[in-house]
Amino acid sequence: MIKSTALSEARKNAPPHLDKSVNLLLIGLDSRKDMDGNDLPRQFVEDELHAGSSEIGGYNTNALIVLHIPANGGKVTALSVPRDDYVQTVGADGKMHKIKEAYGIAKEAAEQKLAGKGLSKAALERQSREAGRSATIRTVQSFLDVPIDHFAEVNLIGFYDIAKAVEPVQVCLNHPVDDPIIARTATHEGGGTGLKLPAGISSLDAAQALSFVRQRHHLTNGDLDRTHRQQAFLSSVEYRLKQQGILNDLGQMQKLFAVVKKDVVIDNEWNILDFAQQAPNLTGGNVEFNTLPISGFKTVGGQEVNTVNPDLIRKIVRQLFKHEPAPAVPAVVPVAPSGDAPGDPAPSPSATPTPSATPKAVVDINAVAGAGAAANESRALAELGYQTGRIGDAPARTRATAVGYGAGAKAEAQRLAARYGVNAVFSSGIPAGRVLLTLAVSRTPSPTAVPSGAPGETSADSAAGLPMQGPAVKAGGIPCVD
């Protein structure tokens, strides 16, 4: 893999470490150029990947995910930073920008400084990218108020190579998607990935996987839903590698890294093979992905940006990474329409259930795998405080797990939906005070994903009660997302 020294500069003014935990930053770079600054082949980028020409995309970091590995070896917490968050950049020009732009701004400034030094095109590209990486790391550190210990950067071709090495990758959608390609014209930038998938589980090749994580049109929440796609893809890849036994086989891992080494950049102090064996929860599926909240939208310089509350963001991060008490927080922009019944008020995001509170709604369960599977899940939910209801079979054609609810059962349904990584939807056909759970995929939810305030919720690194941007995506299986 390509080694980078970008972390050295970023460490000089990094926030202090309070314990022996480790923070990793994953950077997804939306660049259509190779490591030497040459355009990727047009036929490959435009015709096979449907990713537009090398003239677009620039050097935006369209994925920023911080993985926190606690010192005590507990559950790994992953936090995604939405790419359009409007923040104070560090190491770029010091001004307010979308966080994704810190890389490109710093790279361009470095190119101008290096232009008269007689460097080759390839050398200029490599050195200026180092400035972009450093600025991205420093900006993330400042925004979240945590130090970054290691980082990995993957560009467009690097992502494709990784997906190609592990394909097919299974993903699960709550709803079917159809994202037709719109041609670029003089008046329209074009767009669309060409992705067309049914609801439920699909097996993707490398090109489809890239479309899956890049789609933002025809999604209810645009880029915010795309962030959940990225999280789900990482979970599915980890699950596939684990099922194949690769994560426990040093020789197989070496072969995998050899395939992707030319397009993946890591810091020069990180030995990934050793690290993977030292962090079993990271490679064992004990990871929970959450997306940091935004507070709204506004237009700056003709561009729509996400407004954020930096103080709230840092409180959330401290709660998750350092186990501080959960902050009292204001409402945030919802991830999707509530779909609630008229007159059924939504619970306040700042309201934290008391420890004695238990779900009161009755949960009816139907499962594609049969009434036996439904009965097993009913017993598991009963242990978490839910009232058991009717059990039965779900139609074989059912492709996605779903949670529906009747009037007055919204709060309980939302907590239950978070357990399965789906959204709760109101239905006038479901009796008042009841929740209907339809299990389409035979897989066990994470044991840490319990209803907020239910018996057994004692994990200090749980995001329950915090105002995250949409439901958590839990690794260890094939999570369903929008």
Describe this structure in words.
There is one protein chain. The longest helix has 24 residues, at about 120-145. The chain has 13 helices and 22 strands. The protein has helices spanning about 5-10, 40-50, 100-115, 120-145, 155-165, 205-215, 225-245, 250-260, 270-280, 280-285, 310-320, 370-385, 410-420, and strands at about 1-5, 20-30, 60-70, 75-80, 85-90, 95-100, 150-155, 170-175, 175-180, 195, 200-205, 265, 285-290, 295-300, 305, 360-365, 385-395, 400-405, 425, 435-440, 475, 480. α5 crosses α6 and α6 runs antiparallel to α7. With about 475 residues, the protein is an alpha/beta fold. It folds into 2 domains: about 1-320, LCP protein (Aminopeptidase, 3-Layer(aba) Sandwich); about 360-465, 2-Layer Sandwich (Alpha-Beta Plaits), CATH 3.30.70.
Write a concise synopsis of the structure shown.
This is LytR family transcriptional regulator. With 482 residues, the protein is α/β, with parallel strands linked by helices.
Helix count, DSSP H or I runs of 4 or more residues: 13
Low-confidence stretches: 325-358, 442-461
CATH architecture grouping of the largest domain: 3-Layer(aba) Sandwich
Mean pLDDT: 79
N/C terminus separation = 33 Å
The share of residues in helices is: 25-40%
- Class of the largest domain, according to the CATH hierarchy? Alpha Beta
Largest sheet: 8 strands, mixed
The count of β-strands is 22
The CATH topology of the largest domain is given as Aminopeptidase
Structural shape: globular
Count of separate structural domains: 2
The amount of beta strand, in percent, is 15-25%
Radius of gyration: 22 Å
Major β-sheet strand ordering? 1-12-7-2-3-4-13-21
The H-level CATH homologous superfamily of the largest domain, spelled out, is: LCP protein
Helix/strand class:
alpha/beta
Protein name: LytR family transcriptional regulator
Pfam families: LytR_C, LytR_cpsA_psr
InterPro entries: LytR/CpsA/Psr_C, LytR/CpsA/Psr_CW_biosynth, LytR_CpsA_psr
Organism: Kitasatospora xanthocidica
